[in-house]
Amino acid sequence: xxxxxxxxxxxxxxxxxxxxxxxxxxxxxxxxxxxxxxxxxxxxxxxxxxxxxxxxxxxxxxxxxxxxxxxxxxxxxxxxxxxxxxxxxxxxxxxxxxxxxxxxxxxxxxxxxxxxxxxxxxxxxxxxxxxxxxxxxxxxxxxxxxxxxxxxxxxxxxxxxxxxxxxxxxxxxxxxxxxxxxxxxxxxxxxxxxxxxxxxxxxxxxxxxxxxxxxxxxxxxxxxxxxxxxxxxxxxxxxxxxxxxxxxxxxxxxxxxxxxxxxxxxx
Length: 267
Description:
Largest sheet: 5 strands, mixed, barrel
Oligomer: single chain
CATH class of the largest domain: Alpha Beta
Strand order of the largest sheet: 1-2-3-4-6
CATH architecture of the largest domain: 2-Layer Sandwich
CATH topology of the largest domain: Alpha-Beta Plaits
Shape: elongated
Helix content: 25-40%
Order of helices and strands: HHHHEEEEEEEHEHHEHE
Distance between the termini: 12 Å
Strand content: 25-35%
């Protein structure tokens, strides 16, 4: 329990020490202490201990030593679960590390292609193209990407006019995402995948000519270039503004049990 408490304080050397001590005092294999020791060892990049713990859990890994770089499939990651809890998709490259595949909102403090360290226990599920994938809480940014997040405010008459922008690429530009379409502001129970009803009415469907486009890029110059080319490529296309803001990753809030799903009973 000391190891568990230190994990949620993100005190990784203490987490590792307590969980290894717990293992030494037990006669039988304890999955929880192995996972938490593996998380802590990964956080501090102690690959020998991390690989030993994953082997104890029966997880097959490539290679014999060093960092783990493989494909454990796509999952959903909840950023800053102690706050707004923005949820997006990521590809696991390690039992507890995942590379972000969507562009997070700037306020999250994260960027596209960041590698995050995540918890081992799922706290919900998401539908990805007809497949159910688990949701894991991010514990911290493990490795930052090379990209910044830019927000382009554009106007266009229809989806066909926007599509060329979303598929455009240039040196230094990795990915564009129509946030007007893809962002859904959902309540906490929705965020944790718990079924329930909403009483409010859905807004009528229709095309909104004002679009907010998230862009993962290395420089403003690259962003301005692709937006200028898109605007010149058709009628009624306008770039209203380009914004970029940098925020730190918010620290966990005291007094909020963010590592459990709503409705989950305490031990």
